[in-house]
Amino acid sequence: MQPRRERIVVRAASGWMGMGKGARAEALALIPTLFVSLCIFPTVTSQCKIMKCNSEFLAATSGPHHLGLEEAPEFCTALRAYAHCTHRTARTCRGDLAYHSAVHGIDDLMAQHNCSKEGPTSPPRLRPPPRGDSQERSDSPEICHYERSFHKHSPPPNYTHCGLFGDPHLRTFSDSFQTCKVQGAWPLIDNNYLNVQVTNTPVLPGSTATATSKLTIIFKSFQECVDQKVYQAEMDELPAAFADGSKNGGDKHGANSLKITEKVSGQHIEIQAKYIGTTIVVRQVGRYLTFAVRMPEEVVNAVEDRDNQGLYLCLRGCPLNQQINFQAFHSPTQTTESRARRKGPSLSASPEAFTYEAATAKCREKLPVEDLYFQSCVFDLLTTGDVNFTLAAYYAFEDVKMLHSNKDKLHLYERTRDLEPGNMAGMELPTPLLFPLVVLACLSQCSAIFL
């Protein structure tokens, strides 16, 4: 058996894999533009539901009996259903590049297959899960179970944790705790096995307080274990399946080493990726999403070009100019001025506004230990007035208790990196500089997918 450290290098070579044949391959040709636009136009795509239409079309044209050229009538039916879906979302997608690309792509495919625009449409045909989806197959290859691949006399792997919640607060793999702005689309994780991207949007109009409104997780195809899978959640939409309707890793021999489990409908899902020893927890608390992951250090560090991972937030943390001076909100005397800077004078007097004393009392109901999770709860109540952020901090700490391997490090009591006093005013990154950086990161990320 190969030593573990050698085998992880073999894994990295799997990279991004293409999907499907025949008509399905033509349908997937629409995806590159979609992913680029999702990176560049996050606020538009958070309202536009073109991704849902795309997922339904893929579900209808994929699976064990995917449609080929010999099944043109059925393929035309799926195309018409796709066209109807795009028509229903046209109003909110008017300025969305992915929407217009899909519309043109549908017209091209209809012309290629001589499909009539009039005729029957079919509901999306979701792939049935393979037999034994409720438990891992006993004959799954050893490489599809990370922990089993270690020799019984070798030391167990070291696990680490990253979490994002609230307005938003980040706990990195190195246990650095930061409060950030990071509005728009940002990568949380980007390694050889999976990619996680979040989109943070303003909590209130005119506010610089942001929270996570969208989450995309891409599990890259890996050897005989799993096919490439995409999971996407948005505000008020926390699905218990991947984008193609499946709940496991696809048709490969070790497919059940990747599974989605719904813990609480519409509120809490868990993704087990046993082939890389990883557990992901996604919750919707109030209107916004929280994210937590437990991952082996070996997988965390499986990055081909570590020097260029500056935007990988779980590994490197938020850029300095995107961090907020958390300590400025710990003092009652600084609360009013700090809230005004964060929310604007018109919002600071809203009926939901908390005083420092009221916010402290409310957070103590769920978080009796006054650590940084408690302080983040106070911070969020002061900056948003939304009591649901109390639960976001509470569940974030519950996830840490479940996922963190070192029980002595559950509570954090001081910032890993202190910012200089008065540095908040200089934290704004000029928009002309921020936008090209995010676009460049997204384009390079997407090009790696489709080349």
Termini gap: 33 Å
Rg (CA only): 23 Å
Mean pLDDT over the residues: 74
- Strands side by side in the biggest sheet: 3-2-1-11-10-9-8
Order of helices and strands: HHHHHHHEEEEEEEEEEEHHHHHHHH
Count of β-strands: 11
| Count of separate DSSP helical elements | 15
The gross shape turns out to be: globular
How much of the sequence is in beta strands? 15-25%
Describe this structure in words.
By secondary structure, this protein is α+β, with helices and mostly antiparallel strands. The chain contains 15 helices and eleven strands. Strand 9 and strand 10 form a beta hairpin. Helix 3 (31-40) runs antiparallel to helix 7 (97-112) and helix 6 (72-88) runs antiparallel to helix 7 (97-112). It is globular and about 65 Å long.
What does the secondary structure layout of this molecule look like, with pairings?
Layout: H1 4-12, H2 22-28, H3 31-40, H4 42-45, H5 50-60, H6 72-88, H7 97-112, E1 159-165, E2 169-171, E3 177-179, E4 184-190, E5 194-202, E6 210-219, E7 229-234, E8 258-264, E9 268-273, E10 278-285, E11 288-296, H8 297-300, H9 313-316, H10 332-343, H11 345-348, H12 356-366, H13 372-384, H14 388-403, H15 431-450
Antiparallel strand pairs: 1-2, 1-11, 2-3, 4-5, 5-6, 6-7, 8-9, 9-10, 10-11
Helix pairs in contact: 3-7, 3-15, 5-6, 6-7, 12-13, 13-14
Keywords:
451 residues, alpha+beta, 7-stranded antiparallel beta sheet, 15 helices, 35% helix, globular, disordered N terminus, disordered C terminus
